[in-house]
Amino acid sequence: MEMLKIKQWLGVASVALAAATVALPAQADELSDIIKRGELRVAVQTSGPLMSFMDKSGKRTGLAVEVAKRMADDLGVKLVLQDYEWKGLLPALLSGKADMVAADMTPTPQRAAQVLFSLPMFYADTVAVVPKDSPYKTYQELDKAGVTVGALGASTYAEVGKKMLPKATLKEFSGGSAPVGQALSSGRLDAGIMSLSTANQFLVDFGNLRVLEGVMVREPLAFAVGPNAFRLKFWLDNWQTLKTADNTLPEQVRYWYSTDWKKDH
């Protein structure tokens, strides 16, 4: 009798479990949605050489853009680029307009609390740049009253300026790093804070700038996806690992971090 009751209970439990399994809603999967849609929607900076910019022929290119293109090709989907100012990149991702942000973005604790980041795609040394005739030799000398330092607004470069040069006056710019270089070259800033790769481009572009001694900070730079896009995040990590192993990604980084791309674009 007792055995019969146990079998009846197990039968009822099995039916209930099966019903619950059928009733479970399908979980949203961003990676499957991308493949089904046939499009990878990527938010990039409107103007942020060398990561994203319009070249001489009017074509959008740059390190982050070209990496995103290879990702889309490997997924077998079309790449759809969405242009935003720096401050608009994460809002575009969080609103669902974009599937991914491809930029030189540092995965800070504050940002990582909002979105998921891939493994680092690149690294950046943050340096200070001054006009050639500047009296300063090291970035530490900039930390005093009366010195005006420029950086891209809402960026980690601006945060580095606030933290490491608290006595100086920080001026934040929009529209990418180009306005910082222009202000430096025209004498409207005493110094600018940016990545070493960007600084190297400015040395060529403007001709009257130099990099101060000392690396202020070395930062990992990653791509961002939505807060629940776990499969897409794992796919990016796998892609980064494979493309690092076969030297595809390091080769791209070397090309864009040099000044060689200027001859082609």
UniProtKB/TrEMBL annotation:
<keyword id="KW-0732">Signal</keyword>
<dbReference type="Pfam" id="PF00497">
    <property type="entry name" value="SBP_bac_3"/>
</dbReference>
<feature type="domain" description="Solute-binding protein family 3/N-terminal">
    <location>
        <begin position="39"/>
        <end position="260"/>
    </location>
</feature>
<protein>
    <submittedName>
        <fullName>Extracellular solute-binding protein, family 3 family protein 7</fullName>
    </submittedName>
</protein>
<feature type="signal peptide">
    <location>
        <begin position="1"/>
        <end position="28"/>
    </location>
</feature>
<dbReference type="InterPro" id="IPR001638">
    <property type="entry name" value="Solute-binding_3/MltF_N"/>
</dbReference>
